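From the pipeline queue, job 12 of 40. The input is one protein chain; the requested action is below.

Action: predict structure.
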Amino acid sequence: SLRKELEVLKSYEVMTSSKLEGVSIDDLSSRLGRLLAEVGLQVSVPKELKDFDKLINELSLKRRELQGELNNIVDELTKAEGRLKSLEARLADVDERIKSLDLWIKSKEKEVSEVERRIKSLRIIDEFSRKYLGKDGLIARELTRVARLELERRANRILSRLGLRPIEINDEFKISIKVLGESLPISNASGGERVGIAIALRLALAELIMGRSPTVLILDEPTIYLDEERRTQVFEVIKELGRSLKQVVVVTHDESVVNIADKVIRVENIGGVSRVVSN
């Protein structure tokens, strides 16, 4: 190595600069040969004392060259150590980033797992909803059946009070009249009966929604487009309703309603404004 070569050359310098009394030329050459052989320097060992000065100069020059090379190598090693430390610091930073990234990935995997679990739950709920809660689901069909039968029962109770024939409501909510155990299309009913059925269904539906019978009924032009006979039938239905409800309000242009009304309020259009003219 360079260090070993330098040490050998230094030893040689010490050896040649020290007092050599009592040392023969052959002994000095032998010792110098062994030192040069240790570092692998291919230099001729002088046999005469006068040639030693030349060798000393050559070896001194060689030592300076080797010392320069060693210094350069030490500088390069120092720089390499600096770069190594910088790389180690960057590697540590990369390791920290990798650890942070691993934690982030794990948190996202957990979030994805939670989302997948929710999606699975929503699919189960959606399937349950379609099967049991949708418009064609088991629960919806059963509720519709119960509501239809209850609407029919309540409407027939009102029709019975009105003295009208009972009705039947099928699965498609089509209405027919029950006559002597048979079901006839509602088109066979008279105009007054059809108005009575319409009123009975509305009252029954109101009972079903509110959970109790309504106390007030408002009818808007119930006799419009009806002939005299049918108007009379409608008024009979209205009269009968007045016995079971607290109040029946009829808004109409038909003067015949005066004959069954307990109270008449007349309203006229005066100057574009509706005003009560008599009470």
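Job complete. The radius of gyration is 60 Å.
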